[in-house]
Amino acid sequence: MLDAFTQSVIVQGVMLVIGVLIGYGVARVLKGILLVLVGILILLLLGITIAGLPGFSELFGLFGQAARSARTFLGVIMDHPPFALGLLIGFVMGLIR
């Protein structure tokens, strides 16, 4: 049997690794979304309309839902500092690569 300290170190190490992986993935997804948004912006500036794009009211509704989800996620991050550090490291790695 492992003592409580060793178990805590193992759990925190696993949370750090999971945070790095999630942060890396999120950074890659955000870079992809940014490229799509820039492409749509260029089309809109040229006057080309695309059927099926959401309206402003739908987008603002999504921002409200995202804010509520972010509050919950920030609560989890505040409770688990190794996970937060892993997210930060992974996010920076994903942005650089």
Question: How does this structure look, described?
Answer:
The chain has one domain (12-96). The protein has helices spanning 4-45, 56-79, 81-96. The model has no long low-confidence stretch (mean pLDDT 85). With 97 residues, the chain is mostly helical. α1 (4-45) runs parallel beside α3 (81-96). It is built from three helices and no strands.
Features of this protein?
3 helices, mainly alpha, 0% strand, single chain, 85% helix, elongated, 97 residues
Describe this structure in a few short sentences.
With 97 residues, the protein is an all-alpha fold.
Quaternary status? single chain
Structural class: mainly alpha
H/E element sequence = HHH
The description of the largest β-sheet is: none
The geometry reads as elongated
Tally of separate helices = 3
* Alpha carbon gyration radius: 19 Å
Percent helix range:
over 70%
Low-confidence stretches: none
Number of strands: 0
| Count of spatially separate domains | 1
Please give the alpha-carbon distance between the first and last residues.
Answer: 41 Å
% residues in beta strands: under 5%
What is the mean predicted local confidence, pLDDT? 85
